[in-house]
Protein backbone atom coordinates (compact mmCIF):
# COMPACT_ATOMS: atom_id res chain seq x y z
CA UNK A 1 0.00 0.00 0.00
CA UNK A 2 1.36 3.41 -0.96
CA UNK A 3 1.60 6.39 1.39
CA UNK A 4 -1.26 8.12 -0.43
CA UNK A 5 -3.46 5.03 -0.07
CA UNK A 6 -2.71 4.87 3.65
CA UNK A 7 -3.29 8.60 4.00
CA UNK A 8 -6.71 8.35 2.38
CA UNK A 9 -7.70 5.44 4.62
CA UNK A 10 -6.64 7.34 7.73
CA UNK A 11 -8.28 10.57 6.58
CA UNK A 12 -11.54 8.78 5.79
CA UNK A 13 -11.44 6.80 9.03
CA UNK A 14 -10.38 3.60 7.32
CA UNK A 15 -8.27 0.68 8.40
CA UNK A 16 -4.95 2.50 8.56
CA UNK A 17 -5.06 3.02 12.32
CA UNK A 18 -2.70 1.06 14.52
CA UNK A 19 -3.96 -2.21 15.90
CA UNK A 20 -4.73 -2.31 19.62
CA UNK A 21 -2.23 -3.99 21.88
CA UNK A 22 -3.05 -7.28 23.49
CA UNK A 23 -4.20 -6.60 27.05
CA UNK A 24 -2.00 -7.71 29.89
CA UNK A 25 -3.12 -10.92 31.46
CA UNK A 26 -4.73 -12.25 28.28
CA UNK A 27 -4.46 -15.91 27.33
CA UNK A 28 -0.80 -16.60 26.33
CA UNK A 29 -1.88 -18.95 23.54
CA UNK A 30 -4.24 -16.35 22.11
CA UNK A 31 -1.53 -13.72 22.37
CA UNK A 32 0.87 -16.01 20.49
CA UNK A 33 -1.77 -16.66 17.85
CA UNK A 34 -2.30 -12.93 17.31
CA UNK A 35 1.44 -12.43 16.96
CA UNK A 36 1.61 -15.13 14.29
CA UNK A 37 -1.33 -13.59 12.41
CA UNK A 38 0.31 -10.17 12.56
CA UNK A 39 3.57 -11.62 11.27
CA UNK A 40 1.88 -13.32 8.31
CA UNK A 41 0.11 -10.11 7.28
CA UNK A 42 3.51 -8.54 6.64
CA UNK A 43 3.55 -10.53 3.39
CA UNK A 44 2.26 -8.18 0.65
CA UNK A 45 -1.33 -8.99 -0.27
CA UNK A 46 -1.89 -11.36 2.65
CA UNK A 47 -4.70 -10.02 4.82
CA UNK A 48 -5.90 -10.94 8.32
CA UNK A 49 -8.64 -13.33 7.13
CA UNK A 50 -6.19 -15.52 5.22
CA UNK A 51 -3.59 -15.17 7.97
CA UNK A 52 -6.06 -16.41 10.61
CA UNK A 53 -7.04 -19.34 8.40
CA UNK A 54 -3.37 -20.24 7.94
CA UNK A 55 -2.68 -20.11 11.67
CA UNK A 56 -5.76 -22.22 12.37
CA UNK A 57 -4.42 -24.75 9.86
CA UNK A 58 -1.10 -24.96 11.71
CA UNK A 59 1.07 -22.35 9.99
CA UNK A 60 3.38 -20.78 12.58
CA UNK A 61 5.74 -18.61 10.53
CA UNK A 62 6.33 -16.96 7.17
CA UNK A 63 8.79 -19.74 6.39
CA UNK A 64 5.93 -22.24 6.67
CA UNK A 65 4.11 -20.55 3.78
CA UNK A 66 6.32 -22.36 1.27
CA UNK A 67 5.14 -25.73 2.53
CA UNK A 68 2.61 -27.18 0.02
CA UNK A 69 -0.15 -27.46 2.64
CA UNK A 70 -0.11 -23.72 3.31
CA UNK A 71 1.12 -22.52 -0.08
CA UNK A 72 -2.01 -23.97 -1.69
CA UNK A 73 -4.18 -21.86 0.62
CA UNK A 74 -2.77 -18.66 -0.89
CA UNK A 75 -4.02 -16.71 -3.88
CA UNK A 76 -1.72 -16.40 -6.88
CA UNK A 77 -0.58 -12.94 -5.79
CA UNK A 78 0.03 -14.12 -2.24
CA UNK A 79 2.04 -17.08 -3.52
CA UNK A 80 4.24 -14.76 -5.56
CA UNK A 81 4.82 -12.48 -2.58
CA UNK A 82 5.59 -15.41 -0.29
CA UNK A 83 8.04 -16.85 -2.80
CA UNK A 84 10.09 -13.64 -2.77
CA UNK A 85 9.40 -12.52 0.79
CA UNK A 86 13.04 -12.56 1.92
CA UNK A 87 13.95 -10.30 -1.01
CA UNK A 88 11.04 -7.93 -0.37
CA UNK A 89 12.23 -7.42 3.21
CA UNK A 90 15.75 -6.51 2.08
CA UNK A 91 16.28 -2.71 1.78
CA UNK A 92 17.21 -1.21 -1.57
CA UNK A 93 20.02 1.35 -1.63
CA UNK A 94 19.75 4.63 -3.54
CA UNK A 95 22.44 3.55 -6.00
CA UNK A 96 20.48 0.37 -6.76
CA UNK A 97 17.29 2.36 -7.35
CA UNK A 98 19.15 4.73 -9.68
CA UNK A 99 20.59 1.81 -11.66
CA UNK A 100 17.12 0.27 -11.85
CA UNK A 101 15.62 3.52 -13.19
CA UNK A 102 18.42 3.80 -15.76
CA UNK A 103 17.78 0.24 -16.93
CA UNK A 104 14.11 1.05 -17.44
CA UNK A 105 14.92 4.28 -19.31
CA UNK A 106 17.26 2.48 -21.69
CA UNK A 107 14.88 -0.38 -22.41
CA UNK A 108 11.66 1.49 -23.20
CA UNK A 109 10.90 4.38 -25.56
CA UNK A 110 13.10 7.41 -24.96
CA UNK A 111 9.95 9.55 -25.00
CA UNK A 112 9.05 8.31 -21.53
CA UNK A 113 10.25 10.40 -18.61
CA UNK A 114 11.27 8.09 -15.76
CA UNK A 115 11.37 9.58 -12.26
CA UNK A 116 12.09 7.95 -8.91
CA UNK A 117 9.49 8.92 -6.31
CA UNK A 118 8.38 7.66 -2.88
CA UNK A 119 11.03 7.23 -0.20
CA UNK A 120 13.82 7.88 -2.70
CA UNK A 121 12.50 11.34 -3.52
CA UNK A 122 12.07 12.07 0.19
CA UNK A 123 15.81 11.52 0.56
CA UNK A 124 15.88 8.12 2.29
CA UNK A 125 19.19 6.28 1.97
CA UNK A 126 17.51 2.87 1.77
CA UNK A 127 13.92 1.66 1.48
CA UNK A 128 11.75 -1.40 0.91
CA UNK A 129 10.82 -1.40 -2.76
CA UNK A 130 11.09 1.22 -5.49
CA UNK A 131 8.43 3.62 -6.77
CA UNK A 132 8.67 5.17 -10.23
CA UNK A 133 6.51 7.70 -12.04
CA UNK A 134 6.33 7.71 -15.82
CA UNK A 135 5.04 10.41 -18.15
CA UNK A 136 4.79 10.46 -21.94
CA UNK A 137 4.01 13.43 -24.21
CA UNK A 138 1.20 11.56 -25.96
CA UNK A 139 -0.47 10.36 -22.76
CA UNK A 140 -2.73 13.28 -21.94
CA UNK A 141 -6.15 11.96 -20.88
CA UNK A 142 -7.10 13.10 -17.37
CA UNK A 143 -10.10 11.17 -15.97
CA UNK A 144 -12.56 13.24 -13.96
CA UNK A 145 -13.60 12.09 -10.48
CA UNK A 146 -16.95 10.33 -10.08
CA UNK A 147 -19.80 12.82 -9.81
CA UNK A 148 -21.67 11.92 -6.65
CA UNK A 149 -23.81 14.62 -5.07
CA UNK A 150 -21.05 17.19 -5.31
CA UNK A 151 -19.11 15.69 -2.44
CA UNK A 152 -15.60 17.07 -2.19
CA UNK A 153 -14.30 13.84 -0.70
CA UNK A 154 -16.29 11.22 -2.58
CA UNK A 155 -14.46 9.29 -5.24
CA UNK A 156 -10.88 9.62 -4.01
CA UNK A 157 -9.20 6.38 -5.00
CA UNK A 158 -7.84 4.35 -2.11
CA UNK A 159 -5.32 3.02 -4.62
CA UNK A 160 -3.77 5.74 -6.82
CA UNK A 161 -4.02 4.88 -10.52
CA UNK A 162 -6.16 1.81 -9.77
CA UNK A 163 -7.56 -0.14 -12.75
CA UNK A 164 -11.27 0.14 -13.44
CA UNK A 165 -11.83 -2.20 -16.39
CA UNK A 166 -9.85 -4.99 -18.04
CA UNK A 167 -10.02 -3.18 -21.40
CA UNK A 168 -8.34 -0.16 -19.82
CA UNK A 169 -5.43 -2.36 -18.77
CA UNK A 170 -5.07 -4.02 -22.16
CA UNK A 171 -5.15 -0.72 -24.07
CA UNK A 172 -2.81 1.13 -21.74
CA UNK A 173 0.64 2.24 -22.97
CA UNK A 174 1.92 1.20 -19.54
CA UNK A 175 1.20 -2.41 -20.44
CA UNK A 176 2.24 -2.42 -24.10
CA UNK A 177 5.09 0.10 -24.10
CA UNK A 178 6.63 -0.38 -20.65
CA UNK A 179 5.77 -3.68 -18.95
CA UNK A 180 5.95 -5.86 -22.07
CA UNK A 181 9.45 -4.73 -23.19
CA UNK A 182 10.75 -5.00 -19.63
CA UNK A 183 9.40 -8.55 -19.37
CA UNK A 184 11.14 -9.47 -22.60
CA UNK A 185 14.42 -8.13 -21.20
CA UNK A 186 14.36 -10.49 -18.23
CA UNK A 187 13.64 -7.67 -15.80
CA UNK A 188 10.22 -8.65 -14.41
CA UNK A 189 9.98 -11.77 -12.27
CA UNK A 190 6.33 -11.58 -11.18
CA UNK A 191 3.31 -9.33 -11.68
CA UNK A 192 1.35 -8.65 -8.50
CA UNK A 193 -1.24 -6.26 -9.94
CA UNK A 194 -1.75 -4.41 -13.21
CA UNK A 195 -3.85 -1.43 -14.24
CA UNK A 196 -3.86 1.20 -17.00
CA UNK A 197 -1.92 3.65 -14.81
CA UNK A 198 -0.30 1.42 -12.21
CA UNK A 199 1.68 -1.81 -12.31
CA UNK A 200 3.14 -3.51 -9.26
CA UNK A 201 5.39 -6.50 -9.30
CA UNK A 202 8.67 -8.11 -8.35
CA UNK A 203 11.71 -7.37 -10.47
CA UNK A 204 15.27 -8.63 -10.68
CA UNK A 205 17.69 -5.85 -9.81
CA UNK A 206 19.78 -5.14 -12.92
CA UNK A 207 23.54 -5.33 -13.04
CA UNK A 208 26.33 -4.45 -15.43
CA UNK A 209 29.18 -6.52 -16.78
CA UNK A 210 32.85 -5.61 -16.35
CA UNK A 211 32.81 -3.60 -19.59
CA UNK A 212 29.83 -1.54 -18.41
CA UNK A 213 27.11 -3.13 -20.55
CA UNK A 214 23.92 -4.59 -19.14
CA UNK A 215 23.93 -8.29 -18.31
CA UNK A 216 22.82 -10.63 -21.07
CA UNK A 217 19.07 -11.08 -21.41
CA UNK A 218 19.28 -14.89 -21.48
CA UNK A 219 21.27 -14.93 -18.24
CA UNK A 220 18.69 -12.74 -16.53
CA UNK A 221 15.81 -14.93 -17.68
CA UNK A 222 17.65 -18.04 -16.52
CA UNK A 223 18.25 -16.52 -13.08
CA UNK A 224 14.56 -15.66 -12.75
CA UNK A 225 13.66 -19.21 -13.70
CA UNK A 226 15.97 -20.53 -10.97
CA UNK A 227 15.11 -17.66 -8.60
CA UNK A 228 18.73 -16.58 -8.24
CA UNK A 229 19.91 -12.99 -7.93
CA UNK A 230 18.47 -9.99 -6.07
CA UNK A 231 14.83 -8.96 -6.30
CA UNK A 232 12.65 -6.15 -5.01
CA UNK A 233 9.13 -4.75 -5.25
CA UNK A 234 8.58 -2.17 -8.00
CA UNK A 235 5.62 0.16 -8.56
CA UNK A 236 5.30 1.78 -11.99
CA UNK A 237 2.86 4.70 -12.14
CA UNK A 238 1.86 6.30 -15.46
CA UNK A 239 0.59 9.86 -15.06
CA UNK A 240 -0.95 12.14 -17.70
CA UNK A 241 1.28 15.11 -18.52
CA UNK A 242 -1.32 17.54 -17.20
CA UNK A 243 -1.42 15.61 -13.90
CA UNK A 244 2.33 15.42 -13.32
CA UNK A 245 2.38 17.76 -10.33
CA UNK A 246 -0.56 16.13 -8.56
CA UNK A 247 0.90 12.68 -9.22
CA UNK A 248 4.28 13.71 -7.80
CA UNK A 249 2.55 14.96 -4.65
CA UNK A 250 0.58 11.73 -4.30
CA UNK A 251 3.62 9.53 -4.89
CA UNK A 252 6.18 11.47 -2.83
CA UNK A 253 4.70 12.54 0.51
CA UNK A 254 4.52 10.18 3.45
CA UNK A 255 1.08 9.30 4.80
CA UNK A 256 0.97 12.16 7.34
CA UNK A 257 1.87 14.76 4.72
CA UNK A 258 -0.73 13.37 2.34
CA UNK A 259 -3.37 13.37 5.08
CA UNK A 260 -2.65 17.04 5.63
CA UNK A 261 -2.95 18.14 2.01
CA UNK A 262 -6.08 16.01 1.48
CA UNK A 263 -7.66 17.71 4.49
CA UNK A 264 -6.64 21.18 3.30
CA UNK A 265 -8.27 20.51 -0.06
CA UNK A 266 -11.48 19.26 1.57
CA UNK A 267 -11.69 22.31 3.84
CA UNK A 268 -11.55 24.49 0.73
CA UNK A 269 -14.35 22.48 -0.87
CA UNK A 270 -11.91 20.88 -3.30
CA UNK A 271 -10.97 17.32 -4.16
CA UNK A 272 -7.32 16.32 -4.49
CA UNK A 273 -6.36 13.05 -6.12
CA UNK A 274 -3.48 11.68 -8.16
CA UNK A 275 -4.85 13.35 -11.30
CA UNK A 276 -5.23 16.88 -9.98
CA UNK A 277 -7.08 19.37 -7.82
CA UNK A 278 -10.79 19.63 -8.61
CA UNK A 279 -13.68 21.94 -7.78
CA UNK A 280 -17.33 20.92 -7.86
CA UNK A 281 -19.52 23.25 -9.92
CA UNK A 282 -23.23 23.11 -9.25
CA UNK A 283 -25.27 23.34 -12.43
CA UNK A 284 -28.92 24.35 -11.87
CA UNK A 285 -29.64 23.90 -15.58
CA UNK A 286 -29.36 20.12 -15.26
CA UNK A 287 -32.48 17.99 -14.69
CA UNK A 288 -33.42 17.48 -11.06
CA UNK A 289 -32.62 13.77 -11.27
CA UNK A 290 -29.11 14.47 -12.58
CA UNK A 291 -26.07 14.60 -10.38
CA UNK A 292 -26.50 18.33 -9.96
CA UNK A 293 -23.16 19.49 -11.26
CA UNK A 294 -19.72 18.56 -12.50
CA UNK A 295 -16.06 18.60 -11.54
CA UNK A 296 -13.79 21.22 -13.07
CA UNK A 297 -10.02 20.83 -13.20
CA UNK A 298 -8.27 23.48 -11.10
CA UNK A 299 -4.60 22.53 -11.19
CA UNK A 300 -2.39 19.50 -11.61
CA UNK A 301 0.65 19.92 -13.84
CA UNK A 302 2.81 21.61 -11.19
CA UNK A 303 3.39 20.66 -7.55
CA UNK A 304 4.01 24.30 -6.71
CA UNK A 305 0.74 25.38 -8.32
CA UNK A 306 -1.30 22.71 -6.51
CA UNK A 307 0.20 23.62 -3.14
CA UNK A 308 -0.36 27.31 -3.86
CA UNK A 309 -4.06 26.63 -4.49
CA UNK A 310 -4.13 24.98 -1.07
CA UNK A 311 -2.63 28.08 0.53
CA UNK A 312 0.79 26.49 1.01
CA UNK A 313 4.29 27.43 -0.01
CA UNK A 314 6.29 24.89 -1.99
CA UNK A 315 7.56 22.10 0.25
CA UNK A 316 10.79 20.37 -0.74
CA UNK A 317 10.31 16.62 -1.32
CA UNK A 318 12.70 15.79 1.53
CA UNK A 319 10.42 17.67 3.94
CA UNK A 320 7.16 16.01 2.98
CA UNK A 321 6.75 14.14 6.23
CA UNK A 322 5.17 14.45 9.66
CA UNK A 323 8.31 15.92 11.25
CA UNK A 324 8.12 18.90 8.90
CA UNK A 325 4.40 19.42 9.50
CA UNK A 326 4.74 19.18 13.27
CA UNK A 327 7.53 21.76 13.34
CA UNK A 328 6.20 24.17 10.74
CA UNK A 329 3.86 27.11 11.14
CA UNK A 330 1.37 25.51 8.77
CA UNK A 331 -1.86 24.06 10.07
CA UNK A 332 -1.00 20.44 10.83
CA UNK A 333 -4.01 19.93 13.07
CA UNK A 334 -5.41 17.18 10.87
CA UNK A 335 -2.23 15.16 11.16
CA UNK A 336 -1.89 15.76 14.89
CA UNK A 337 -5.51 14.80 15.43
CA UNK A 338 -4.95 11.61 13.45
CA UNK A 339 -1.87 10.74 15.47
CA UNK A 340 -3.69 11.42 18.76
CA UNK A 341 -6.53 9.19 17.59
CA UNK A 342 -4.13 6.35 16.82
CA UNK A 343 -2.35 6.73 20.16
CA UNK A 344 -5.68 6.60 21.95
CA UNK A 345 -6.51 3.36 20.15
CA UNK A 346 -3.27 1.71 21.26
Model description:
This protein has 346 residues and is α+β, with helices and mostly antiparallel strands. It folds into three domains: 19-86, DNA polymerase, domain 1 (Orthogonal Bundle), CATH 1.10.150.20; 92-138 and 162-238, Beta Polymerase, domain 2 (2-Layer Sandwich), CATH 3.30.460.10; 252-345, DNA polymerase, thumb domain (Beta Polymerase, domain 3, 2-Layer Sandwich), CATH 3.30.210. Helices cover 41% and strands 16% of the residues. The chain has helices at residues 3-11, 28-40, 48-56, 68-71, 76-83, 85-88, 94-107, 118-121, 166-171, 173-184, 217-226, 244-252, 255-267, 303-309, 322-327, 333-345; strands at 92-93, 113-116, 126-127, 130-135, 188-194, 198-204, 231-238, 270-273, 276-282, 293-299. The strands form three sheets. A five-stranded mixed β-sheet has the order 2-4-7-6-5, with helices on both faces. It has a three-stranded antiparallel β-sheet with strand order 8-9-10. Helix 1 packs across helix 13 (255-267), helix 2 (28-40) packs across helix 3 and helix 12 packs across helix 14. The longest helix is centred in the first third of the chain and has 14 residues, at 94-107. The radius of gyration is 22 Å and the shape is globular. It is an enzyme of class 2 (transferase). One of its GO terms (biological process) is double-strand break repair via nonhomologous end joining. Its EC number is 2.7.7.7. Keywords: DNA damage, DNA repair, DNA replication, DNA synthesis, DNA-directed DNA polymerase, Nucleotidyltransferase, Nucleus, Transferase. Residues 10-31 are annotated as: Disordered.
